[in-house]
Amino acid sequence: MSRAVGNRAETIATEFLMRQGCRIVDRNVYSRFGEIDIVAEKAGVLRFVEVKSGTTFEPIYNITPAKLGRLIRSIEAYLKKNRLDLPFQLDAVIVRGTACEWVENITI
User: Fold this and answer.
1) Per-residue pLDDT tens for 32-48?
2) DSSP string, 18-57
3) What is the mean pLDDT of the chain?
4) 28, 44, 56, 106: most buried, per Cβ within 10 A?
5) Rounded CA gap, 19 and 32, in Å?
């Protein structure tokens, strides 16, 4: 997927999350382990959101166990760097065209 397509999907996902009552805290956070697409907050819970898009396959399957491991290490680095001690979870937003599906707590 091209960076432009990824950026468009992240923008659609960000707007979707805001309509769902989330406050966007950060976007495209890089660590030595990888990238966190969106950091949002809703109801006192920090949500680290992985955005996936696609039309010819099920995008959620691109979140592999290895990818989850890198995301979790990136989240730990983010929390430590920002000295945050908040409840958090790892979510995904699947973007198909302009439609979004929010999958909460993808590590369970």
Assistant:
1) 999 999 999 999 999 99
2) HHTTPEEEEEEEEETTEEEEEEEEETTEEEEEEEEE-SSS
3) 90
4) 106
5) 31
